[in-house]
Amino acid sequence: LVGGILVAAFFVLMWWVPKGDLIRSYFPTDAGFQAFQLVYILVSLLLFFTACTIFEIPHGALGMEMTSDYHERTRLFSAKSFVGNLFAMSTPWLFALANMEVFRGVGGNEADGMRYVSILVAAILIPLSFWWFFSLREPGFKRVVKQEKTPFWKDMKHVAQNRNFILLTLTIFTLAMGFNFVNLLGSYIPIFYVFGGDKVAGAYLLGINGTVWAITGLLAVFPLNIISPKIGKRNTLVVAISLMVLAQFSKIVFYNPNHPYLIVIPTILLSVGMLFFFTLGASMVGDICDEDDLKTGHRTEGSFYSIFWWFIKLGTALASFVAGSLIVLTLFDQTQVTRVDALEGSIREIHAELQAWKEGKPATANMEDLLNKARNRASELRVHLEARAEKNPKSQEHYLTLLENVKIAEDYLTNLDSSLDPEVFERGIRAVDALIVPLKLQSPLTLLRMRIVEIGLPIFLSIFSIFFIMKYALTEERSHEIKELITIRNRARDLEEEG
């Protein structure tokens, strides 16, 4: 309950980065203000992921306690994945929602939109947290509560000595880390490679892609529960890794600007592989807990799952730092995108004022001031592109093309005047608007590097993941034997207590 409420609260907090004149007065320089924003984001992310941990560790441990049956445990975690994917169908559309004017405002961007979308998400999560709390009951609590409490570090040392657990955790960690590293690039490529910088079209594709991912995840639950009992969990895990590697290789062909919706093919393969992989991972931790229970006589799901989850979060945290470095490595020009967004925001403001002007509504802003603002932003963009062209001779042709478009936009803005006929004025603004998306296009070298890193890095780390899982030794036969022995032991204990 506490974890669910905190997740919702900190999700809102991390999007509401303070801004405005009051905050600016405390940080008068751009560098100081940016440093403040960075610290705020890092602290809020730390709080958010801490809240996720508070929620997920007892949640996962409780899932492992629900059953001691080898295959029923897989079905249980499959049900968890099924319900999770029901909600996951909505998350890809958050970016699309954030780009809607009702959330971002007239001159805002997707970050402004996410401030209000985050409140909507929290309004759904908090009531659900109370519902889960009052509905869920912990099985076997009476027996487990009687066992002797052991010190935290003693539990951690004990868990770290379990060879099968270490191999399984390394399997999950290496592969998850590989995909987490390139997760950000996975969002950039549809926008900047497939759609040439068109965020609206890219957001729509990401929404469809995410929905396909979630639906595939829902359906993949059923073949998982057919395949795993037949070939075993370890072999099914190898199948999952193979599917993900195949998906990565398929991106070479299916990331195609001429046929953008082919991107759903690797998405389907990845979704099936990921569903198999993470569902089985959690289920296999439960099997290891049974093995440990037989040896020690203690249930330690919380200790095992906390370390398992800690490694997953470690991979996410490392990815947060490395992802930015990978973006820099590809030579992605974030300043270019930011300045084009600023120009686009000015054009939207002019559009809104022009529409009010045509409808006879009172002016909300001075048109000349809005035009001057747009001219200044176009000039700042041109200066930046000139510097980039000089700094990157290999991409000079690309930047010269962008500069031509900027100069055309500047000419249009220079020739516009609020005294012009509204229709003539509107044609000029629309001409500038048509140049906005092409101005976000990244250099061919950057796009190539983005694809190489996004496709290649997960494949490379998947090799290590396969190596670790092939050394995992807890078989299905041994797991069934452990279950029977634990059942016999618990019956004997119950008889002793009754006697």
Question: How does this structure look, described?
Answer:
The longest helix is centred in the first third of the chain and has 36 residues, at 30-65. The mean pLDDT is 83. The protein is elongated, with a radius of gyration of 27 Å. It is built from 21 helices and no strands. It is mainly α and 499 residues long. It starts with a helix and ends with a helix. It has two domains: 2-136 and 162-332 and 445-471, Growth Hormone, Chain: A, CATH 1.20.1250.20; 334-441.
Based on the structure given, which CATH architecture of the largest domain is correct? Up-down Bundle
Query: Number of helical runs?
Result: 21
Average pLDDT, to the nearest integer? 83
Q: Share of helix among residues? A: over 70%
Structural class: mainly alpha
Number of domains: 2
Radius of gyration using CA atoms only:
27 Å
Query: Which CATH class of the largest domain is shown?
Result: Mainly Alpha
List descriptors:
mainly alpha, Growth Hormone, Chain: A, 2 domains, 499 residues
Brief sketch in words of this structure:
This protein is mostly helical and 499 residues long.
